[in-house]
Amino acid sequence: MRPALVTVLLSAAAVAGYFGYRYFSAAPGTALPEDAGDGAAPASEIALADELPEIVLADLAGAPTSIASWPDRPLLINFWATWCAPCLREIPLLKSFQTEHADVQIVGIAVDRLPPVQSFAAEMDFNYPILVGQNDATEAAAALGVQVLALPITVFTDPAGAILGIHTGEIHAEHLENYAAVLGELAAGRIDRGAARARIAGTM
């Protein structure tokens, strides 16, 4: 067999194996998340809810936990997975932000199976809570207005549970600094919720 043909066949087998793994490792009926890298989803795929909906997912011990468990605090909700490279790159930055901004509560939502998330969390030593689900986490993202789950995704709220914005793709320090500044100006009464949303969206 010619070397070129062997290379083509091996490449095809590798691609088929990868997608086979992604398909069979997901729970039945689970929409397979996509790795967004550092890009953003088209605007047509995001129609934000105004208020934080009721979301209940398992914590790392398997206990049902409501997103309302942290009342009267701004929430930064980060959807991630153990197999998502940009998601993993974000985690040290999110941990640092949580340490520096104790008034904000980060909540990680792993779109993944519980056992690998438990193993990963034991090594990562998160300083913010992690909730876990596959179908349930996908449905939670949809309730927030995300129609295509391209990880990572970060949702920003104010202390009253109003959704201020969403970032699709890898988050960077400037996004977090902007969020902290917006929360400060909102709390001081210098901007209203509409202006806060525009600032998070980068339109003003």
Written description of the protein model:
The protein is of the alpha/beta class and 204 residues long. It has two domains: 1-30; 32-201, Glutaredoxin (3-Layer(aba) Sandwich). 42% of the residues lie in helices and 19% in strands. The chain has helices spanning 3-25, 85-100, 114-124, 135-144, 173-188, 193-201; strands at residues 34-35, 56-59, 64-66, 75-80, 105-111, 130-133, 150-151, 153-157, 163-168. The strands form two sheets. It has a seven-stranded mixed β-sheet, sandwiched between helices. A two-stranded parallel sheet has the order 1-7. A hairpin with a 4-residue loop joins strand 2 (56-59) and strand 3 (64-66). Helix 5 (173-188) packs antiparallel against helix 6 (193-201).
Main traits of this protein?
204 residues; alpha/beta; Glutaredoxin; 2 domains; seven-stranded mixed beta sheet; two-stranded parallel sheet; 42% helix; globular; disordered N terminus
Please trace the helix and strand order, writing H or E for each element.
HEEEEHEHEHEEEHH
The number of helices is 6
Looking at the structure, the CATH topology of the largest domain is Glutaredoxin
Give the C-alpha Rg. 18 Å
Widest beta sheet: strand line-up: 3-2-6-5-4-8-9
Low-confidence stretches: 1-34, 37-45
Second CATH tier, the architecture of the largest domain: 3-Layer(aba) Sandwich
User: How far from one another are the termini?
Assistant: 61 Å
Q: Assign an overall shape.
A: globular
CATH superfamily of the largest domain: Glutaredoxin
Q: What percentage of the residues does DSSP assign to strands (E)?
A: 15-25%
Query: How many runs of DSSP E, i.e. beta strands?
Result: 9
Q: Output the CATH class name of the largest domain.
A: Alpha Beta
Please indicate the count of domains: 2
Main β sheet profile: 7 strands, mixed
Q: Mean pLDDT across all residues, rounded?
A: 82
Q: What share of residues is helical?
A: 40-55%
- The chain-level structural class is alpha/beta
